[in-house]
Write a structure and sequence with these properties.
Elements (H helix, E strand, L loop, with lengths): L9 H12 L6 H11 L6 H20 L17 H17 L1 H4 L10 H16 L5 H15 L1
Helix pairs in contact: 1-2, 1-4, 2-3, 3-4
Amino acid sequence: MKPIPVQMCQFHQILIVRRYVTQNPDIETSRELLNLVNIIAKTDKESFCGAFNEWYEKYRDVVNERVHDKRIKRITPPYMRPKLRSAYLSIKRNMPLLWTFYDHPETGLPNTNNAIEGVFSDLKTKVRVHRGISKENRNKLIDEYLKRHY
């Protein structure tokens, strides 16, 4: 049995990074990472991966810098910029899932899940209009909606 390819929404990866480094980052390292991740949906895999690796090589010391304070009584001191590091690690960890649509074009996967979210939004509106409907009839409504539209 072949494994089912899974695509992580590139837009959601942008939001994850934005949550860590904010919309308007203070330091250059975070600004460059945010600018890099903002072009993920407009570029190809090789270009993005190459630019991401170049960014890491350029800012490796900043990402891995630890706090040097004698008052901290830990074996390994905490990272100086934990949110920047989390943003970097999130992209690194999700990298294979961000490019499934590129690696498996035969599947027809989109790079974002915007289309399916639009379907869910419309469906939620239809179900919300019928608030007092029983669970059985709600399931029938959803089945009928999906049969007629997809």
